[in-house]
């Protein structure tokens, strides 16, 4: 089958509309169809062409509105009906966003597709919290890892022992739900229980929240204040820079 349309996998960034790329914004303004994720902010959606068909394909833990296979099939179908189809994904499409999976499906179906990278929350959320992921006096290496692994993966589990000793800063996506297990495995692997930890919820938004502690106590702290997802977890001495740099957070114009 010939598909006249083209699908663009566009990263919406972490929430602050000022972090949306110019290319992504331009595509939203001329799109015929926009299929968007749950974590895309209302301010980003306000950029969408008012005449475009907008489809909510958001997936949240325990509340999947569409299955991943159905989303890919929808994009293929829309490429046969419309000229510009935007798959709008929170953060960056290729960083724990299943963008690679969707692109594979589209390519295999013969659909023209292009990726437009976005700023990932694993970088932006700590930055807005005053936590630089690298610093000459604290960290020269960073590991990005998912804390939520889906069924049917290419391997059974994250090697937390290797992660614990692989870099000086660890950034965990989707790690709140499994935080007790993750912390236990990192401690078992030999990471010091006094290692600083920060959780950043709704990163880059006006309602951004932060919780800081150490590995020994962070799980109890999360339970005590009922700190919930979506949040980024940062582990390493760079977290201590929050005390100095957090006052320099960006001012939101919206």
Write up what this structure looks like.
The protein is α/β, with parallel strands linked by helices and 254 residues long. It has two domains: 6-119, Tetrapyrrole methylase, N-terminal domain (Cobalt-precorrin-4 Transmethylase, domain 1), CATH 3.40.1010; 122-247, Methyltransferase, Cobalt-precorrin-4 Transmethylase, Domain 2, CATH 3.30.950.10. The protein is built from nine helices and twelve strands. The chain has helices at residues 22-30, 42-45, 68-79, 99-108, 121-128, 160-166, 179-188, 218-225, 242-245, and strands at residues 6-11, 33-36, 53-56, 59-60, 63-64, 84-89, 112-116, 142-146, 169-173, 196-201, 209-214, 231-235. A five-stranded parallel β-sheet has the order 3-2-6-1-7, with helices on both faces. A five-stranded mixed β-sheet has the order 8-9-12-10-11, with helices on both faces. A hairpin with a 2-residue loop joins strand 4 (59-60) and strand 5. Helix 6 packs across helix 7.
Secondary-structure topology with pairs:
Layout (H helix, E strand, L loop, with lengths): L5 E6 L10 H9 L2 E4 L5 H4 L7 E4 L2 E2 L2 E2 L3 H12 L4 E6 L9 H10 L3 E5 L4 H8 L13 E5 L13 H7 L2 E5 L5 H10 L7 E6 L7 E6 L3 H8 L5 E5 L6 H4 L9
Parallel strand pairs: 1-6, 1-7, 2-3, 2-6, 8-9
Antiparallel strand pairs: 4-5, 9-12, 10-11, 10-12
Helix pairs in contact: 6-7
């Amino acid at each position: 089958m010939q598909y006249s349309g083209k699908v663009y996998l566009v990263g919406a960034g972490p929430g602050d509309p000022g972090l949306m790329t110019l290319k992504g914004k331009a595509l939203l303004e001329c799109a015929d169809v926009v299929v968007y994720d749950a974590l895309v902010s209302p301010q980003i959606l306000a950029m969408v062409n008012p005449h475009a068909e907008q489809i909510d394909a958001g997936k949240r833990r325990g509340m999947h509105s569409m299955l991943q296979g159905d989303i890919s099939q929808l994009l293929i179908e829309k490429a046969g009906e419309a000229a510009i189809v935007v798959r709008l994904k929170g953060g960056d499409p290729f960083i724990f966003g299943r963008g690679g999976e969707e692109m594979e499906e589209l390519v295999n179906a013969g659909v023209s597709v292009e990726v437009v990278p976005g700023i990932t929350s694993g970088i932006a959320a700590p930055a807005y919290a005053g936590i630089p992921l690298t610093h000459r006096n604290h960290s020269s290496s960073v590991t990005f890892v998912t804390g939520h692994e889906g069924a049917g993966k290419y391997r059974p589990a994250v090697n937390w022992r290797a992660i614990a000793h692989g870099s000086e800063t660890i950034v965990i996506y989707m790690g709140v739900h499994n935080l007790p297990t993750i912390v236990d495995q990192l401690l078992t692997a030999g990471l010091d229980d006094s290692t600083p930890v920060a959780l950043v919820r709704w990163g880059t938004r006006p309602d951004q929240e932060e919780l800081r502690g150490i590995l020994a106590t962070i799980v109890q702290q999360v339970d005590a204040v009922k700190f919930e997802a979506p949040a980024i977890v940062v582990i390493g001495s760079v977290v201590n820079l929050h005390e100095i740099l957090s006052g320099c957070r960006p001012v939101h114009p919206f």
